[in-house]
Amino acid sequence: MSDPEVLVEEIDKLGAELTRAKAAIAERIIGQEEVVDLALAALLSGGHALLMGLPGLGKTLLVDTLSTVMGLSAARVQFTPDLMPADILGSEVLETAEDGARSFRFVKGPVFCQLLMADEINRASPRTQSALLQAMQEQEVTIAGAAHALPQPFHVLATQNPIEQEGTYPLPEAQLDRFLLKIDVEYPDRTTERDILLATTGVSEGTSPTVFSPEALIAAQQLVRRMPVGEAVVENILDLVRACRPDAPEAPQSVRDHVAWGPGPRAAQALMLTARARALLDGRLAPSAEDVAALARPVLSHRMALSFAARAEGIVLTDVIDEVTRMATRTEAAA
User: Fold this and answer.
1) How far is Cα 36 from Cα 223, in angstroms, rounded to an integer?
2) Cα 323–chain centre separation
3) How far apart, in whole angstroms, are the C-alpha atoms of residue 97 and residue 328?
């Protein structure tokens, strides 16, 4: 059997497993198909995700369900202004043996898990946020000069509350860029909210089965990177990302007028990986321009910013992204 045939067989098999995983998640997460797909795309791409939504929309339940279905060890940290780096990473404690000898022992913090929920991450001080940055980027932490590798795979799903910004510390651009996707969690519609009401106020709530394992998820991440991407899709990604930079020749006038700074190469990498993952979740063998367009907002909205004048005029960043996406899609269709 040739390599392409083997790849197709592996993709089909993984697609069936992902269908089972999505069905298991849907037993507890009702009516949030797009949010679930984006969260799974982040995991399949080996990245981290930032969940934006008001309290009570199921963000914590989503992370708990994902950890169960994907077979990952999970930990949750409630970020507060007094949280210290050692509260997340761990610390060395001085121990005295029976013979009186003293030595330091490293006590691991909650970051030593496979799926970390950083709840209200913007409430922690910049010092604590920067401590998490190394873990997210390098998959290890350094304590007292010694590096400690984190379990594999390692993912962070952080939450932010878009209201009650008093007393918060906005995430620096460098840390925002480490999040593969920003996922907006919206209010459910009336029918979905009715289903949630009936499903969660009975005698007991359902539990989710374990479908994946850490080893299976790592294998899936490697398969995503082996998925073929057509040259037209690669060019579409480049057109989209470069058109969002105000100083780039490809930038339209709306970007030049309203955007202060645009996405870097990491955004193009994120689009390439998540487009593959989205195609896989949809049962397709390769991504398309539609995948790139659908992921434009989650990938780009936290990697660019409006100018002060644009904000004063009431310009909305997602509207700018949508306009550039439409232009890039039309250019691709014309080509």
Assistant:
1) 20
2) 24
3) 66
Q: Are residues 235 and 272 in contact, defined by beta-carbon separation less than 8 angstroms?
A: no
- DSSP H or E segment with residue 140: strand 140-143
Q: Is 249 exposed, middle or buried (0-12, 13-18, 19+ CB in 10 A)?
A: exposed
The rounded distance, in Å, linking the Cα atoms of 315 and 319 is: 8
pTM to 2 decimal places: 0.88
Query: Which residue positions in the chain have pLDDT lower than 70?
Result: 1-2, 163-168, 203-206, 330-335
3-state secondary structure (DSSP) of residue 270: helix
Of 307, 301, 219, 294, which Cα lies nearest the Cα of 261? 307
From the CB of residue 277, how many other CB atoms can be counted at a distance below 10 Å?
28
CA-to-CA distance for 132 and 37, rounded, in angstroms? 25
Q: Which two tokens stand for residue 79?
A: 């970020």
* DSSP string covering 166-219: TT--PPPHHHHTTEEEEEE-PPP-HHHHHHHHHHHSSS----PPP---HHHHHH
Listed residue (153, 173, 161) closest to 48, CA to CA: 153
Rg, Å, the chain Cα set: 21
Residue type for position 147: A
